[in-house]
Write a structure and sequence with these properties.
Chain lengths: 299, 271
Amino acid sequence: MSLIIDVQHVTKNYGDKIALSNVEFSLEKGAPVALVGPNGAGKTTLFSLLCGYMQPSSGCISVLGHAPGNSALFGRLSALPQDAQLDPRFSIATQLNFYARLQGMSNKLAKKDTARVLDMVGLIDAANSQPSELSHGMRKRATIAQALLGSPEIVMLDEATAGLDPANAKEIRAIVAEQAGNVNFILSSHDLSELERLCDQVLYLENGQLKQHKTLNIEGDSRFITLRMKQDFPQIIPAILQLQGVSHVNMTQDREYLLTITNDQGSANIEMELLLLLQKNNWSYAQLINGKTLENQLF
Amino acid sequence: MNINLSRLSNIITFEIVRLFKTKRGLLALLAFATIWFIILYYFISTAADIVSSRSFERMAYDLFGALGLSALLDWPVSEYAIYWLVAVYFFPIFALSVCSDQICSDKQRGTLRFITLRSTRAELILGRYLGQLLIVTILILMTSIATAVLASIRDLALLPASLQIGAKLCFELFIVVMPFIALMSLLNTLVNSARLAIVAAMLFFGLGPLIIAVIKHQFGQEFYLNLLFPGGQISSILSQNSVVVSHYALPVIQAVVLLVASNLIMKRASI
């Protein structure tokens, strides 16, 4: 596995305020990585540092073996920065064509690639529209399209699906899932279920510090099942605890239970037994998840 | 400084597209054409009649001579004498205004973040500067050609002389506007809107000499800080009766210094 991003002891201060404090991690080529954290945790600052939009106060960053902003990364690293907008005076095709030309494509190839990425995000019919003529969601998709121009090795999407309707958000997730084999995505989002679906690694930032860097659903000796019920059933916890192999049941939130399963032989058919128990008591469930939800893993 | 010529030419070309293919650019062109139509029609086209009239001749010699401009009255194409006097002051002011948004709005909007993933900041600064310089040069050429046409309508025999003087004045104006556009490049790296850049330029030219005078008074010594101000050579080149290397070297050096400063600021700036 090759290292794509290496962040060493990075600190970023805005005056007296510490945005990132001694952040250290490295990422290898592979499935999408989620960047998670509350508002003001430093996610956008970290994105900006990785893209070379700003310099760290101290520490060292290497992206594909180069310092961020280095011309060797042009066309290899692309991003959707949060709140960045296209120029309202030009059509989206004109601007994407310009970006493709800057990436070294010929005029013909740039036009072809612009059409390709606009088609991917469902905006081919709006290619000649100016950003001001498009809805917020369409503008967002146009900026996602610019991140897909050429063949980038790393694509960073900061809140890519924020503000999109469910259908368009699903489209964007499908694009990420489809491209994930060729492109290393780094995604930030407040939608944990979205990240859970797409990513297998999580960087969790809080107050400018990297609190966790983990691979999802690798939990050691025990395994977990998350059960979401349609209604609240007071007797459910004692009943589940009667099942062989269930060592703990925690109510993680309203009508959601986290079952800790011991990895012994008796727990092999635990899902079947659990479903039979629910059927026998006429307890209707909403969702059965193999493992912890990302929310339960992080918080 | 990392400069790739292909990316640089793409940035320059896009600036030209910005002027000729956007509504705002075309409106600016229309405003420019209107102003110059008035200048050409009411001042320059009547220049020959005024300058050659006997009653005016004495007064003009007295006035222009007092200003050190009597050499202009000896030009074979009198239209260009008036053109030069208007253009040498008009184009620097026009350049400050038309080149006031080189990167400001892109920085404010975040568009710069898309561009800097594909081009170095030095390419962006230089590309935008050269793009604006090219636009102003095209406009200078257009006004000069219009003046030549006016002179030729009066007397077709003046065409060769018009083209010769016109080309020389275009070159002079090109050199004059260089540091003014570079000053706006520098101000664009410091402020976040075109309006603020224009205000900053006004303050620079308005308060700058005052500050220099205070520094000179305080230290009792000449620091040659006035060399920092674009256009310092304009009063010397106005009469066009001598060619001195410093008249060209000063604006070129000013432009280079301002662009290097813009690049240094931009290199460290957070966008």
